[in-house]
Amino acid sequence: METSRRHLFATGLATAAALPASVALPATAASTPKPRWGKGIEGQRKADLGNGTYLNPIIAGDHPDPTLLKDGENYYMTFSSFYSYPGLILWHSTDLVNWTPVSPALSKPLGTIWAVDLCKHGDRYFIYIPAAPDGGEWSIFAIWADRIEGPWSDPVDLKIKGCIDPGHMVGEDGKRYLFVNGIRKIRLTDDGLATDGDLEAAYQPWTYPDDWVTENFAPEGPKLLRHGDYFYLITAVGGTAGPVTGHMVIAARSKSIHGPWTHCPHNPLVRTQSDAEQWWSRGHATLVEGPAGDWWMVYHAYENGYRTLGRQTLLEPIEWTKDGWFRARGGDLSKPLPKPKGGKTGTAGFALSDDFSQDRFGVQWAFHDPKPDEMTRVRRQSRTVRIAGRGTSPADSAPLTCGVGDRSYRIEVTLELEGMAEAGLLLFYNHKAFVGIGFDGERTRTWQYAEDQAWNRQTLKSRKVRLRLTNEANVVTWHYSGDDGRSWTRHPTRMEVSGMHHNVFGGFLSLKPGIYCTGDGAVRVTDFTYQALA
């Protein structure tokens, strides 16, 4: 009996009805009620439900480590961009729910980019960036602009070595400080572009009970604000991935930027309690005042069953209590919440379908882990992007990727080969984890488990092929057409990709559609279409 039951679970055929009443199956994305988002551009899920409520996430897909700036009636936000360049896309909103991209702030490759801090000091905007150029030692860099739309300066190395997760604050002394992981702080010069002191311990975070299931202690993501008589320090602990109950938000306060800091009696303010919840590993929060003067918390989380989408951005109401602390008041985030009052509703997101008549590099398209000369591979022509070949497989070709935020979607694109090239369509996590199909003018090539499945090649004598990728809840089906989509051939292998995420492959990334080209020739890319599926 026990052997039979193990077999049922292994093959996915066991059901709750087949088990004794005392045995409960863990909650999964399939067994929980399906949330109902609004329908946006191309059917993309939209947080604003159009009836005065919204349903998280406010920005779907891979938008981790949100850093948020209130600038008059406008809100701006950016996120970790990791290996994508151009990177650090700035998003704009007037109501905290509907967000649209403005432009990328960073074009010079610095290696992987982790949690940054966006702030304004005087009339100048700053982004403080932890980066590891050429895979070397981490340091904090700064870029600045006189207008949020840019142009942004080249990065300045502040030489704050071995640190990540900067958080900017002006102290009661009028001096500027950066807090970093640890939790440590360092004084900056008045222009914010150099250090003016030594890195020193700032705060020993509140410690959760030892029997809580977390990834590790990992105090990180310090974000600060001044409210009333106090400085408030919002910190993430517990690890940003790993067990779903690990990541959390804690707070402390002090009347001086130099401490001492008092732990919030309500810690942790946010934490996933079980894998039955819609949102896992919730943490890395910023507090912000809403358009009508109420207060909100923005942070990231993984979606139950869809870690492949990366960490997504959530909005939760908070309330200030009589004792001068605050509490999160969102409750069950799988259900709609009232929108912030007083804001002007704007457009949400943008179309991913691209006829390549405009330059959308940085906002939509980005090379994965590019070399400094990567953009020299690109030549834009009339409704076409030509990409020169690089490398011998998707792993070393720096594919051109495009982030998505839907659980299920369909993509089509036409690829035409030039010279001795091979090209194809991928779902790409990193060089260790990708799937896809390609062609070389004679036959197809199948990429699965990040390897060439040489046994799985089909004859395809065409140098111009339209490819289709259909991802339905992490099950991927491929089609190809040699006659501009008039007829289609289904690739014989479907691929299940739910395991392609950080807990398996590291890197804190997401699974993105991508286009690769290898060899000595090039590929001409036209007519990219995207459609979210219900």
List the helices and strands and how they pair.
Layout lengths: L1 H10 L26 E2 L5 E2 L6 E2 L12 E5 L2 E5 L5 E2 L1 E7 L6 E7 L10 E5 L2 E8 L7 E7 L10 E2 L9 E4 L5 E5 L3 E5 L11 E2 L18 E8 L2 E8 L10 E7 L7 E2 L6 E2 L7 E11 L5 E9 L8 E9 L5 E3 L8 E2 L26 E4 L9 E4 L2 E5 L11 E3 L5 E11 L2 E10 L2 E7 L4 E5 L2 E2 L11 E9 L2 E7 L7 E2 L4 E2 L5 H4 L6 E8 L2 E11 L2
Describe this structure in words.
The chain has 534 residues and is mainly beta. Helices cover 3% and strands 41% of the residues. The protein has two helices and 41 strands. The strands form nine sheets. Strands 6-27-30-40-32-33-34-35 form an eight-stranded antiparallel beta sheet, with no helix packed on it. Keywords: Glycosidase, Hydrolase, Signal. Residues 1-29 form the signal peptide.
What tags apply to this protein structure?
single chain, 534 residues, mainly beta, 8-stranded antiparallel β-sheet, 2 helices, 41 strands, disordered N terminus
The number of distinct β-strands equals: 41
In this structure, how is the largest beta sheet organized?
8 strands, antiparallel
Taken from the alpha-carbon principal axes, the silhouette is: globular
Fraction in helix: under 10%
Domain Beta-xylosidase C-terminal Concanavalin A-like: 353-529
Signal peptide: 1-29
Protein name: Family 43 glycosylhydrolase
InterPro entries: ConA-like_dom_sf, GH43_C2, Glyco_hydro_43, Glyco_hydro_beta-prop_sf, Glycosyl_Hydrlase_43, TAT_signal
How is this structure best summarized?
The protein is an all-beta fold.
